[in-house]
Amino acid sequence: MIGGLKDVDADAGAGVVLDQPLIVEFGAPFEARRARSKVLAWTALVDDVAKHSGVDKALLMAVIDVESGGDPFAVSPKGAKGLMQLMPQTGARQGADDLFDPYQNVAAGTRLLDTLLATFGDVPRALAAYNSISNSIVK
Fold first, then answer.
1. Looking at domain 41-138, does it have CATH number 1.10.530.10?
2. Which of 33, 38, 56, 60 could form a cystine bridge with 70, CB 3.0-4.6 A?
3. Model pLDDT, residue 41
4. How far is CA 102 from the centre of its chain?
5. Strand pairing partners for 16?
6. Which sequence positions are flagged as catalytic?
7. Dist. CA 110–CA 99, nearest whole Å
């Protein structure tokens, strides 16, 4: 028996019958789906900000998903705040004075990403710079 299926006629290669209910889940597990629905709640805001920038809205949604899981009040152990997890100094340089305000946070994060994309020319390097993974990126 494999995965709830019982072989009826192995010699004849005749097929299988269910020994127990077969449950198939499509998509992500429940917790991941719930987190994704939190991110999707910001679609209209992201659409609005993206249309005024050169940054793809799917990229913005992905950053929000990875950085905060859609929680506008998220705070990292290092002090990054909000949907796009900006440090206070970075947010201030991008014009945001309240990083827990979703619009200010996404607008500031988008301005930063737009600048990094223009500087580095590709998404992987821009995202690496966004996350300050390495100072050697600037080379």
1. yes
2. 38
3. 93
4. 15
5. 7
6. 67
7. 13
Instruction: Give residue limits of the domains in the chain.
Output: 41-138
Low-confidence ranges of the chain (pLDDT < 50): 1-18, 21-26, 30, 133-139
pTM (two decimals)? 0.71
> What Å distances lie between residue 19 and 9, 15, 23, 115, CA to CA?
14, 13, 12, 58
**Alpha carbon 110 to chain centroid, angstroms:** 14
Q: What is the 3-state secondary structure (H, E, C) of the chain?
A: CECCEEECCCCCCCCEEECCCCCCCCCCCHHHHHHHHHHHCCHHHHHHHHCCCCCCHHHHHHHHHHHHCCCCCCECCCCCECCCCECHHHHHHCCCCCCCCHHHHHHHHHHHHHHHHHHHCCHHHHHHHHCCCCHHHHC
